[in-house]
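Re: that chain you flagged

S.,

Sorry for the slow reply, it's been a week of failed gels. I finally had a moment to sit down with the sequence you sent. For the record, here it is as I used it:
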Amino acid sequence: MGPPASPPSAGRYVPSEVLLKFKDHTAPSERASALGQVGGRRIRTFRSGAEQWKLGQGAGVEEAVARLKKNPHIRYVEPNYLVGIDAVPNDPRYPEQYALNNTGQTGGTPGADIHAESAWSVTTGSHSVVVAVIDTGVDTSHPDLQANLWTNPGEIAGNGIDDDDNGYVDDVHGWDFINHDNDPFDDNRHGTHVAGILGAAGNNAIGIAGVSWQVSIMPLKFIGANGYGSDADAIAAIEYSGAMGARISNNSWSGPDFSRRCWMPSTASPKAPCS
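Prediction finished late last night. Pasting the structure tokens below so you have them in one place:
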């Protein structure tokens, strides 16, 4: 698989959307006034207090950001930037570049690897460890991943009810933040590739062995088939992962733009730039 396709818009951000955060103790009337400045509506509020807005018809993102930056009640405002997956090389011999057990098979130095076999003699992992794969989704039907898929213990599959009252209906195996449904299936393959490196079931005579033979992989899709997703959907996925018990996440994506967003409630110094 080669590099992702071009972003789905002329800019590097989602058209007609911004992310912003008000200063503490801003009155509701001032917040409403700011929305009126750009004819906007609030799409969602994140745990950090930051908000995602949809701009009014005809309102340009750059113009709206410039206007809102002058509002003394707003701490920061920026476009809802796009990020893309880190490219996976399509070289035909790439699979031979084994990092788990380098025997010199590709001309490299034997032993120049992560010493996985030594680690596996100590532990091959545990399903109690939940790792969120925040990416293009995961092929949940893949035979080398099915045994290691995370299952939401508070959800009953297929009953159309939000059993655990977390705001997501039937999120048995994660969530698709692009299509807003409970099927985080991978239509790009990047997330599945990442999940395989991380946690393909080991010693099962199928495919490859992941770094961890036993783990709970939480599929969270925020990047589409074209290889791009938005900051806002990434924030939502990260917040979900923490709320649902993942203490580790893999984020193999990046973008060229600087963002002041706070994805989780800040426990850092008061001087942190987006606290």
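What I noticed first: Residues 1-6, 88-95, 262-275 have pLDDT under 50 and may be disordered.

Talk soon,
D.
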